[in-house]
Specification:
single chain, alpha/beta, Rossmann fold, N-(1-d-carboxylethyl)-l-norvaline Dehydrogenase, domain 2, 4-stranded mixed β-sheet, 12 helices, 12 strands, binds nicotinamide-adenine-dinucleotide, ApbA, 2-dehydropantoate 2-reductase activity, NADP binding, 2-dehydropantoate 2-reductase, NADP
């Protein structure tokens, strides 16, 4: 399959390597000049479960996508951060032809609204992934452990192609699963990010330390209740008790000493976070539906205040 990955960060690199190694024609597009330069010069380098691998994968700087003008990809996979999605797709929209499908695997809520500006609903695929990835520098990924992908076409017409993508992902070892209700899974994952990522970033602690505070159960339950109330308005029925158990398992899991990606973005790297697409999306949808979301409103504002302080 001809696959263009938009966003050659940690996750884009993982998917690029795995799809390249299984024989697909993979092309990368990225907006971070140092990253593009490193991948052009040295290839895409990774520590893949402890083993050094290098793959020569073509990469284009976001501002130079016109060089790919006549390239007709079958699938474009979005792997930017949420806050980069719209500006990035404004630049790559010329690559989306009538037969191109777009798969979104970003964390967070509301990406389908952004992507519908660039691709028809029949060619839009939504998903979530439990694979993880990190960058140790430009063009260098650290890929440890295992994961899976859940995906579903946004409109019924896209099912046939989505099943083809499932086969291609299976051949790449990405453990895909066709979902009957990917929107539910997206909301359930957003609850994990909207609790663990946001609270660890504000409290500057890892997941285990958050779980050891006496306030964790109440905070999690209040936040999840807001997500569930807003999701219900969109026809997604989250069970708050089940979601709480699902999130709280992380406190004692093997990765409990992990610092969530929002912590890494904000506290370690002083980058903008995806908060507007997690708690911020719940706050904004809550205002629209007249549902009170005081926890999400406060958390969103605190994260933005911290972004301002750290970026000064
Ligand atoms: P990432 O930050 O590694 O990459 C996203 C974009 O930011 C890329 O274009 C990358 O080149 C650029 N970038 C990265 N570091 C930069 C820097 N220091 N300066 C300038 N630009 C930089 O993001 P990611 O981890 O690949 O995540 C992509 C999406 O996948 C997000 O929505 C994320 O929430 C989601 N996700 C991530 C993981 C994970 O383990 N990393 C797991 C599941 C889902």
């Amino acid at each position: 399959m001809k696959i263009v990955i938009v966003g050659a960060g940690a996750m884009g690199s993982r998917f690029a390597l795995m799809l390249h190694h299984s024989g697909n024609e993979v092309t990368l597009i990225d907006g971070w000049p140092e990253n593009v330069a490193a991948i052009k010069k040295f290839g895409l380098r990774a520590q893949f479960n402890g083993k050094s691998v290098v793959a020569k994968i073509p990469i284009y700087q976001l501002d130079q996508v016109q060089q790919l003008q006549n390239y007709q990809a079958d699938l474009l996979i979005a792997f930017t951060k949420s806050n980069q999605l719209e500006a990035t797709f404004d630049k790559v929209k010329t690559l989306i032809g009538p037969n191109t499908y777009v798969l979104c695997l970003l964390n967070g809520l509301g990406h389908e609204a952004v992507l519908q500006k660039y691709v028809s609903v029949d060619h839009l695929i939504l998903g979530i992934t439990l694979w993880t990835a990190a960058l140790s520098g430009p063009g260098q990924a650290v890929l440890i452990g295992t994961g899976n992908v859940e995906l579903q076409n946004f409109s019924p017409k896209g099912k046939e192609f989505t099943l083809q993508v499932e086969k291609v992902f299976a051949a790449a070892g990405l453990n895909p699963q066709y979902s009957d209700n990917v929107k539910y899974s997206i909301w359930r994952k957003a609850c994990v990010n909207g609790t663990l990522n946001t609270l660890c970033s504000l409290l500057e602690c890892n997941i285990k330390e958050l779980g050891q505070t006496s306030f964790a159960p109440t905070l999690l339950k209040e936040i999840i209740a807001e997500f569930a109330a807003v999701a219900a308005h969109e026809g997604i029925n989250l069970n708050p008790d089940e979601v709480y158990q699902h999130v709280a398992v992380a406190f004692t899991s093997d990765s409990a000493e992990h610092y969530p990606s929002m912590y890494q973005d904000l506290v370690q790297n002083h980058r903008q976070t995806e908060i507007d697409f997690i708690n911020g999306a719940v706050w904004s949808k809550g205002q629209q539906y007249k549902i009170a979301t005081p926890y999400c409103a406060l958390l969103t504002q605190l994260i933005h205040a911290k972004e301002e302080l750290l970026q000064q």
